[in-house]
């Protein structure tokens, strides 16, 4: 597949031009917003183009096809690359092959470009292990710090990092790695979207008069945790790409506050006007609670004139269940980036409510 624009020749330029890989996802969308607001020219790479806007040119390509990437990127000359995409596979070995390969092939397709910096988004599975052995065996003490050694287990995050390091050594650009916790932000059709999932869940509970039951573990309900607002992630990536203190470093990236779900859950419930209920003796995962609710959402979409009637494009029950069902504490240390000069900070309850306000304004959830 090739660029959505015509194939006119584009000469190399030294003015800042960002290639955002995965531009329709949670992190990529927030990053595109920030770059445009700061006056960058943005090349937005995704399988399907998003909405047209000033300062953004969409490029459609299959990240898993080396030939497609070379064809799509041959005429492009970005100065900065922000890699925010991944593709979940059935096994970790397949995750390594596919996701490591996407980083390798994309950067190889840009060998001709005047790349100054490449930023890569990974996550806290760097410390917790992959899906197949998540939280099993020895893991670092919390809060997780960036200088912890890699776990002795296959992990596609490590494969992505290694491909990044190899390309940087080959081509002479600087790099940064951004290890986020659960990212909440604005995106539709994303497989890992807790913010929209909880908004949809609460909206269904309100519609049907159901209690808003916490689907996770006592450990998550009572323990400390943190999260990553997509705007914080975007801000840190741009900072690391443009400030010498961010070059050739890995950084944890979270909002900066910590919270307990036993306090956050009632606050979210109050926003939607539903009754919060904590974890019971028997877990109540969302995949179980929301089974068979597709027709209910379709009816709600019609009655409330919502923009999306397909429940599967809005809610990722499995991902939220996995996050909230953990039996271990997950908190990241962010002092490394603070000392280096990155000081942006959010309160997580504000991240949630700002996001819910936007969902209502865009008629993704009922405004009741």
Description:
Residues 76-366 form the PRISE-like Rossmann-fold domain. It holds the Pfam family PRISE. It comes from Conyzicola nivalis. The structure is a single chain. The protein has 368 residues and is α/β, with parallel strands linked by helices. 39% of the residues lie in helices and 14% in strands. It contains 14 helices and 13 strands. The chain has helices at 26-37, 66-73, 92-109, 125-128, 156-171, 194-208, 218-222, 230-242, 261-272, 286-289, 294-303, 317-324, 335-340, 348-361, and strands at 17-21, 41-46, 56-60, 80-83, 117-123, 174-180, 183-184, 212-213, 224-225, 228-229, 249-253, 259-260, 276-277. The strands form 4 sheets. A 7-stranded parallel sheet has the order 3-2-1-4-5-6-11, sandwiched between helices. It has a two-stranded parallel ribbon with strand order 7-10. The protein has a two-stranded parallel ribbon with strand order 8-13. Strand 1 (17-21), helix 1 (26-37) and strand 2 (41-46) form a beta-alpha-beta unit. The longest helix has 18 residues, at 92-109. It is globular, with a radius of gyration of 21 Å. 45% of the residues are buried.
Kindly estimate the percentage of residues that lie in beta strands according to DSSP.
5-15%
- Average pLDDT works out at 93
Cα-atom radius of gyration: 21 Å
Overall strand count: 13
Domain PRISE-like Rossmann-fold: 76-366
Protein name: NAD dependent epimerase/dehydratase
């Amino acid at each position: 597949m090739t660029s959505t624009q015509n194939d006119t020749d584009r000469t190399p330029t030294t003015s800042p031009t960002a290639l955002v890989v995965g531009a329709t996802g949670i992190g990529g969308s927030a990053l595109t917003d920030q770059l445009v607001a700061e006056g960058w020219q943005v090349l937005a790479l995704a399988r399907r183009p998003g909405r047209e806007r000033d300062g953004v040119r969409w490029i459609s390509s299959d990240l898993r096809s080396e030939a497609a990437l070379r064809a799509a990127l041959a005429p492009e000359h970005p100065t900065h690359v922000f890699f925010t995409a991944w593709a979940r596979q059935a096994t970790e070995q397949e995750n390594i092959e596919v996701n490591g390969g996407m980083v390798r092939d994309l950067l190889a397709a840009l060998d001709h470009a005047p790349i100054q910096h490449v930023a890569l988004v990974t996550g806290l599975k760097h410390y917790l292990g992959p899906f197949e052995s998540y939280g099993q065996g020895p893991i670092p003490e919390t809060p997780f710090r960036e200088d912890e050694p890699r776990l002795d287990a296959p992990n596609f995050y490590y494969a992505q990092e290694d491909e990044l390091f190899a390309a940087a050594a080959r081509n002479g650009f600087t790099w940064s790695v951004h290890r986020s916790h659960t990212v909440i932000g604005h995106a539709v059709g994303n497989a890992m979207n807790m913010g929209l999932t909880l908004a949809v869940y609460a909206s269904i509970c309100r519609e049907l008069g159901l209690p808003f039951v916490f689907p996770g573990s006592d450990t998550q309900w009572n323990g400390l945790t943190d999260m990553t607002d997509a705007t914080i992630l975007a801000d840190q990536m741009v900072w690391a790409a443009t400030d010498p203190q961010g070059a050739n470093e890995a950084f944890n990236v979270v909002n900066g506050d910590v919270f307990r779900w036993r306090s956050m859950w009632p606050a979210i419930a109050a926003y939607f006007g539903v009754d919060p209920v904590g974890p019971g003796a028997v877990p109540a995962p969302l995949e179980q609670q929301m089974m068979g609710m597709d027709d209910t959402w379709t009816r709600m979409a019609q009655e409330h004139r919502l923009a999306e009637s397909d429940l599967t494009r809005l809610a990722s029950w499995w991902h939220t269940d996995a996050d909230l069902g953990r039996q271990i504490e997950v908190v990241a240390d962010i002092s490394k980036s603070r000392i280096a000069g990155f000081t942006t900070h959010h309160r997580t309850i504000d991240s949630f409510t700002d996001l819910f306000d936007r969902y209502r304004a865009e008629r993704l959830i009922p405004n009741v």
